[in-house]
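<given_protein>
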Amino acid sequence: MGYQIGDVLKGTVTGIQPYGAFVQLDKEHQGLIHISECRSAFIQHVRDELALGEEVEVLVLNIDEYSQKISLSRRGLSERERLARLDYRRIGKQGPHYFWTNRHVKLGFSTIKQAMPTAIQESLQRLRG
């Protein structure tokens, strides 16, 4: 199989089920677009979004290592385009941003229980300003 996660492919819708749509990628490979990956908004029925025989552009989300089943997304393409249009020069100028990981803190192998009081104090200080 020559496909990789992140590939953008074209295929044909060959089957529609309540949970998603099957897309024929080539003569040997077929993938599934889950109903949640059809678009970013809620859809009641897959058939309202896709039609049999329709040509679609999809993003490869995952390839199961054992069964070789391919998970596809149309929603991922629109999100990828949206992220490509971001003006990265403006990011971070709206104020401080806090991230879950702080790579400057070296905790080593200390347990969460040992680090928790310090983390709580730091969080309270940030909340109090």
Remarks:
- The domain at 1-123 is CATH 2.40.50.140 (OB fold (Dihydrolipoamide Acetyltransferase, E2P)).
- The chain has a mean pLDDT of 82.
